[in-house]
Amino acid sequence: MKIALLGYGTVGSGTAECLRNHPMEGVDLAKVLDKRKIDEIKEILTDNIDDILNDGTIETVVEVMGGEEPAYTFVKSALLKGKNVVSANKLMLSRHYDELVNLAREKNLSLSFSAAAGGSIPWLFNLLRAKRVDNILNVGGVMNGTTNFILDKMQTGDGADFDKVLKEAQAKGYAEADPTADIDGLDVKAKIALSCDIAYSKMIDPDDIPALGIRYVTKNDIDNFKAMGYNCRLIGRGEKIGDEVAVYVEPMLFKPDAAEYTLAGAGNIISYLGEKMGKQSYFGLGAGKEPTGAAIVNDLYDIAAGISIFDMAQCVGKTKCRPELVCHEYYVRTNTEFDRSIVKETVGDNAFITKKISVASMHELAQKIIADGKEIFAASIAE
Ligand SMILES: NC(=O)c1ccc[n+]([C@@H]2O[C@H](COP(=O)([O-])OP(=O)(O)OC[C@H]3O[C@@H](n4cnc5c(N)ncnc54)[C@H](OP(=O)(O)O)[C@@H]3O)[C@@H](O)[C@H]2O)c1
After folding, report:
1. In which domain, by residue range, is 24 found?
2. Residue 300: inside a domain, yes or no?
């Protein structure tokens, strides 16, 4: 099987390296699309997508360019030309899931995307297998290594400030120069959307998912969590409630008996709850050149062997996310006035625990306070 890589950045070069180190007979990297001149692959490099789309000998395209466009157009064109696709592009896949999954099914092609959520952790792969034999009641967990690195650093050792730890995460290559996608929960929105798409066979628009990030967490908050016996993580979750799905992204406080409590560094821990199988969790490295490259090569080898688990992915329409259907108690710290009837108890300066309120109400309140130029940090309390 001849393959082409679209993008030779972190993940693209990691994929090529893994293919070189762990070759499979009959699988060859035939072309690479990138804008830059790259000496090590100059014989197979092109900057023209048509060189790949119009090459009938290329059976499978690996999209690791990132961004919505032109990645979406290239992936759709590859499927229309009869090529299998492997992609790690959570943003593009989560926004076009229904169309691309159905197009691949219609054309009897594989569209595989293990690396799009969980990186090297076999999360989506096992979720597809679990879904085949059980009713999935909820999915989600810690799906972003950058924010876990930041929260872990703030919660261990001498407890540094958010800004200082963010700079350290950037220096170590965990966080981008513009950290918005990580710290405001946008990356998790795409990953939890894809996880729900698979678990419930209906597309959730990632842009509809309410998200609270960790931008405003302070050392004082961390001290309050410690005093209450909690550790904070940024989570994405999708819960099946009757025929509806409640999806949200928010910081959550965990007690020591939860696996999430001790999750160190840039780790991920993602779980599903099956009606019959119970809770099963997957943890490890959710990103990085080599782990992500390895996940992509595994998808390629499954396609070459004719056993791609992603061929089971289905999408029968769209569904709204319904955050009003789930209620939590929240830790809230804010420097502004608001409706005090939601307060259950005070836990520090301007900090309190709410009564149980819906995820939708808490997110609306927080977004209003932020839009008014005031500060708020809110984290739900895990049950
Ligand atoms: N990094 C990770 O650990 C990780 C983990 C899981 C999933 N992913 C996903 O994998 C994808 C790739 O991430 P990455 O970290 O490898 O990104 P990256 O390092 O920025 O690599 C992307 C490469 O694609 C090239 N490219 C972009 N648009 C192009 C175009 N129109 N024509 C030709 N080349 C183009 C870029 O060139 P220029 O730099 O010149 O634009 C760059 O070399 C993203 O969707 C990301 O979300 C990443």
Report:
1. 2-119+289-312
2. yes
Average pLDDT of the segment spanning 179-207? 97
For ligand 1, atom 28: residue with the closest CA: 65
Tokens linked to 100: 């691309």
Asked, for residue 78, whether it belongs to a domain, the answer is: yes
Nearest CA to ligand 1 atom 44: 66
What is the per-residue pLDDT across 334-381, written as a single tens digit (0 to 9) for each? 989 888 899 999 998 899 999 999 999 999 999 999 999 999 999 999
What pLDDT digit, counting tens, does each position of 111-170 carry? 999 999 999 899 999 999 999 999 999 999 999 999 999 999 999 976 789 999 999 999
Out of 191, 226, 255, 318, pick the active-site residue: 191
Pocket residue to mutate for ligand 1, from 8, 15, 32, 34, most atoms within 8 A of Cβ? 34
Q: Is 191 a catalytic residue?
A: yes
Write out the two tokens for 205: 């628009």
Q: Which ligand 1 atom lies nearest to the CA of residue 89?
A: 45
Strand partners, 333: 351, 377
Q: What is the pLDDT of residues 239-258, one digit of tens each?
A: 999 999 999 999 999 999 99
Q: How far is the CA of 9 from the centre of ligand 1 (A)?
A: 5
Give the tokens for residue 350: 């301007």
Distance 24 CA to ligand 1 centre (A): 24
45 Cβ inside 6 Å of ligand 1 = no
Burial of 235 (0-12, 13-18, 19+ CB in 10 A): buried
Beta strands at 111-112 and 84-87: parallel, antiparallel or unpaired: parallel
Question: Is 280 inside a domain boundary?
Answer: no
Identify whether the C-beta of residue 32 lies closer than 8 Å to the C-beta of residue 14.
no
- State if residue 64 touches ligand 1 by the CB under 6 angstroms criterion: yes
What predicted TM-score, i.e. pTM, was given to this entire model?
0.97
> CA 367, CA 150: separation in Å to the nearest integer?
22
Supply the CATH number for residue 87's domain. 3.40.50.720
